[in-house]
Here is the input.
Amino acid sequence: MPALQRMGSLFSGIGGWEFAARGWLQPLWAVEFAPEVAMEYARNHGHAPLVENIYKVDEKLLAPVDVLVASPPCPGFSMARKATSVKFADELAGLEIPRFVKHLKPWYVAIENAPKFMLMDVCRKIIEALKGMGYEVEASVRDAADYGTPQRRKRTIIRASKRPLSRVPLQEGRSWWDAVQDLELPASKLVAWQSSNLDLLPPPPEAYPVLIPGGNPPSFKASEGQGRKVWVEHWKPAPTIARAQSSGGTRVALRRGDVRGLTVEAFARLSGMPSDILLPGRSRALNILGNTIPPQLAVAALYDVLR
Here is the structure.
């Protein structure tokens, strides 16, 4: 059996890229700034990442890799982070990626971030730097639901290769209900604004079970709110579930009057995570899930490596 290609991960988080690469690539090292997140990475992948500020990491001390992946922070644009946590240095952290590429010389680089990262000067500078090093580069906004994740989640994906890039094929979609229907969901109740909206726009019988997004009541009108329905039919993917929605009341109605809550395991399923993922308590788990690339989308971003 040929040796697996070696992978390094910057801004690794809990390791969404590593979940995608299981059996295909050999993760050699990872870099993560937050100790509590690094601990969850180690629990899931069997080796501890380097816990350090990216600005202080000496690229010359890292082992060479064939594939480099990165999920730089972009708290100013990510739906899963609070606006009050925005730090100027965070948004510039992605500019550190080219120096690692320059030294490590991977043949393939994949970067992901929030959709509006495409509009940032940081993104433009990263792309220019990669092209200047001889990489063919493609940048696009892709929806994880188009690659088999049972939730709509758009991300900026940058693919850079020393070889010609291939077109990434779409994958068969998966519904939110298919992802969670085997779980035992706890009994719950709708809050007043959810009930009133459902009274104004009740689902037809054939739509049940329906997913009822949580979040901020003014965001949801009787028809559509922020592009999300008051309810989502069982044959569709879930809408993007932001941190506030997951902690604030996203529910499932199996039928009129039979309402269930979503567990951490259910949210992990909707995020496309593997069944054996290990997560901390609910609050931290939901934050981690909201900041982790869905593995199915990571597979698409690594298409030229894994095919």
Confidence is low (pLDDT under 50) at residues 77-88, 218-227. The two ends are 16 Å apart (CA to CA).
